[in-house]
Amino acid sequence: MRYTTLVSVLVIASLLLAGCVEHPEEPEVGSGELKIGVVASLTGSASATGTDMWQSAVLAAEEINAKGGVVVNGVPMTITLVQGDDESSPKAGVEAVTKLITEDKVDLLVGGFSSGVTSADSVVAAEHKVPFIITGASSPVLTHRTDIDTSYFFHHCPTTDDYGERTTIFVNEIIKPEIYARFNFPEDRPLRMALLYQDSAYGIGVHDATTKTIETYNLNIEIVAAEKFKMGETDYRTPLTVIKATEPDVIYPVAFLNEQTLIVTQGRKDVGLDSIYLSVECNDDPDYYTGVERWGEYSIQESRFGPYAIPAGPIESAVETFRDDFTARWGAPPSMMGASTYEGVYIAAEAVKNAGTVDKAAVRDALAEIEMSQMVEAMQGGVITFTQDYRESKFDLYMQQLFWDDSVGETRPKIVWPNSVKETDFVLPDWYEPGST
Question: Which of 122, 298, 326, 405 is exposed most, by the fewest CB atoms within 10 A?
């Protein structure tokens, strides 16, 4: 396993002189250092995303420290980040979080990618009652489960319920009418959707959210296939061939970046499954737009932040600044999981400032009451806050379609829904083949 510590760039020793007057009525603020453990997949199958999360956390810490750190009861505290590489596996995740808490003595945790991994390693945080701002794992089970104390967990990313519902509604409202108009399908014909999902809390969560949305809204959509795969697989030709035989209208993979890229390219190039492919938000990443090549053109990418498309609105300039600063620092634009982790470090700093202490119970209480202006991701109501029941923040989600850009030799996304931020209309490509009538 790999752990390195980011050396603080600001040291305020003069404020900790031995002759300072004690104020016992004020809470303890620590040694002038706020230690945040960043839980990320720095190696293993999700390493591209994990590296982006770490780099985004570093940028946030550098910005905060450059402005004087986190001022707690008049005492500036510098942020020190400590890596916790979960190696894209539950076992290594448990080991990483255990070390962060018991050896590195972090004050709180930020990050967590892969619901399966985070479901395992968050148990350690619960046992030690360490606040954990989860910025990458999207299963609602993380804060809904009752077998452990989840009161120290704060979910700062949309859940599978959130984006599974939003994506299914988009398919019904936008994609389905275009297909039916071109092929003169009768309105009573169900849209044929196939799911190819990771056999994990993440994949199962999206599967369940999709079926629940169809039932809740009484949508005329039929799930004609639901194929599972193990996290990290590289050959999807067999399940894609099974799916092709069911004659779907739309393919909904529930996969990580490295998996999604292969599903789209193998599906179109090798299996000849010329359909509309949907993609979960975690794949809104520069590597994805490069990796899918022309095979990804006209596919759909659900999002809340991306490296290229920026929704018009009050955070537009903030998004541009973050993207430019990240690119200048690391040589490539950030991904979505990086954006939420960047915000997660700011949320942690604000909570400690509001708590007036690094006491973990007090920080937890401050997180439960936090209200911050939205930063680089559009939030419902324009505010970062957590729901009272399951401590989930709520995002404004949008859908993008990929179009080939000759000037860069890659696909680039454009927002196609909702109308409030739409850049262009959804396009059903000429090569598209629907399912059976």
Answer: 405
